[in-house]
Amino acid sequence: QQTPGGGSRPGFVGLDEISDFEWRLALGDVAGARDLSQSDIDELAQQSGDLVRLRGKWLRAEGSALHRAAAFVAAQQAVKSDDQRQTMAELLALVTDPDASLPVPVAEVSGLGWLDDIARGGVFAPPPLPAPSSLKADLRPYQQRGLEWLTALGGIGAGGVLADDMGLGKTVQVIALLTANREQTAHRQPAVPPALVVCPMSVIGNWSRELATFAPHLEVLVHHGSGRSVEQITTAAPDVVLTTFATLARDRAELAALRWGELVVYEAQHVKNVHTAAAKALRAIGSRQRIALT
After folding, report:
1. pLDDT tens for residues 169-228?
2. Strands 220-222 and 240-244: what pairing?
3. Of 38, 63, 71, 169, which alpha carbon lies 20 to 30 A from 288's?
């Protein structure tokens, strides 16, 4: 369960708030089963065997389940007190894996929004989302699903990989996302930071044309060539900045110092070698969401 104060809004948690997750032990397998207090857990953790004493009453739990469950919760609390945060992968494995080494089954995941769905059905399904009204394109059904997935992943602080085949419109799906994000925050201050699109030089022109076609209201700046400067980005305050892998590697420090809303890596197979200058530069860029297209 999410602890009070965790997450950005009630009933919701993102990847950054996962350290606020805590385990609780309840007695009973029906709705309204009572949570055990910390003193109850401490008492059970000190007992072994199938027959244990709790609140002055003797209870039988097959295979020392109550003792093992209390010891598990106590161990999780000790890890948290040592500030050893549980990773998202570890938590998801425990919640969704039927063969996970838990002493008793997970009966409920509450207060975590999207994790509730995973715990109930084993899947995370993005909610339906209308295409942005200012987008000058009719999305195909699979492109609409791509927009919904990218939006939902961004909502929980996660990145994504869009790997449709060539010619199926990965670019327009990302343009739809950038448009939707800016429609939703149009009246907020400060404004959403620009998106940084990193791609090979050969497709800079294509990105410029598709942005002008499908989202002509977005301000686009190309950061490339001998006349480029980071000051142009801060002064012009564009919605989208286009640059190349080579330029990013050269201007790594300056670009990493700026705030970015989305980091989009087009033809991301070019940076699958993590030791290249471009791959290192990409990891230095901070952004709210990171999207790889390949």
Report:
1. 899 999 999 999 998 876 666 678 999 999 999 999 999 999 999 999 999 999 999 889
2. parallel
3. 169
